[in-house]
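Teaching assistant here, posting this on the class forum so everyone can see the example we discussed in section. The complex has two components, and the goal was to see what a joint structure prediction looks like when all of them are supplied at once.
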Amino acid sequence: MGSQIGFVTVVLMATFWNDAVEFAPILLKGAEVTVMVTITSLILSTFLGLFWALLRTSHIRVLSWISATFVNTIRGIPILVQLFYIYFVLPEIGIQLTAFQAGSIGLGIAYSAYMSEVFRAGIEAIDVGQIEAAHTIGMTRWLVMTRVVLPQAFRIALPPYGNNLIMLLKDSSQTSAITVAELSLESKLIAASTFKNTTVFTMGAIGYLIMSLPLIFLVARLEKRFKRA
Amino acid sequence: MISITNLHKAFGANEVLKGISLEVTQGEVLCIIGPSGSGKSTILRCINGLESYDKGEIRVVGHHVNRDTKQIIWIRTHVSMVFQRFNLFPHRTVLENVIEGPVYVKKEDRTQATIRGRELLKQVGLANKADAYPNQLSGGQMQRVAIARALAMQPMAILFDEPTSALDPELVGEVLSVMRNLAEQGMTMLVVTHEMAFAKEVADRVIFLDGGVIVEEGPPREILVNPRQDRTRDFLRRVMHVK
């Protein structure tokens, strides 16, 4: 009896490894797309988010209102629906995007709303007195922003920014719904054709963990560092 | 050098300045005293364009002060300000705080600015703190850095907004002594303060402000020792803690 269980385990393990070796190249391709989508949308969401945050904190009512409206609208719509909109609705007004482009841009725009809130919190944490002091040594608004406000705001924003990055990595799986061949879609396709659900999805999950765990540790370290400062 | 004519300023319905006129001449130390809420700080903030004003005029060596024009940068690089709460840049070292204006606003050569920055720190007694960060300093040290930062702009005048009010009593002296040295070197200074002893000793002229108007002005001996107005006398009695 005991030896039978042992035998079955060995066979299962061997099959697992055989399958794993077979699926790995496809899943790695998927992981590569996941990383590409994440990086592209991270860059887009960072710049766009900073832009919204600067508008929001500009003290110019119209700009602030535009930014707040955009951010709240985006935050109030599920990412999946936004992706559908960009991929399926935009072509109707003549804007054709590949799945990768639509996925990256869609995620980038969605996350720009979250990023902008992170940056805004950082900017608003800077003491008004420092900004006044910067003005009294003759700094222009540009210098006040780039020399005094933003360097400090970025440090404050870094831990929540890192958290958003981890969420973004995982949310990149949502682009599978518009046929971006990233890790989760590749997993699903292999599983559907081989019925090796356990092997494939375990590998997919491990793939995401391998990518996100280093980020999680990095963010934890950053948080500790800034708590001390 | 600084001339203010009929200055009016209101925050909403609250009229803080009700027609202030005053003149600061080159090399003069003018102290403004008065109860809190009398508009002392607001005058300084208007001179430097941190606040707009509703009526009247402020001129600095003939240049009209208007915070909505580019001219304000010129005013600010020639008239420095020291704040009650120091307002140093916490992400930069002491030396970097001091040379920030010269290097980034006046585009001076960094090496030259650094040499002068170190001299200024020596002048305020903080030569050994050049590489420290503001949060490693005491309040008195931070305020002396703020004064060095103001001096680094090579200003024509410095505005001091209650520079010792946020300090522990035992740290007030070191800041006042730096200010006394500046006065002796002929720096034009407009000082809002509660330090009556300092005003008496260092000021050329004292203005007593109450309810947004100048109640009395004159040499410190006159205003602080033999005030003519009852309001001045009341105020002095209260701040001197004597019956």
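For the discussion questions: Chain B is about 40% helix and 25% strand. The interface with chain A takes residues 48-50, 73-74, 76-77, 80-81, 83, 85, 87-91, 100-101, 104-106, 146, 149-150, 153 of chain B (CB under 8 Å). Think about how each of these relates to the inputs above.
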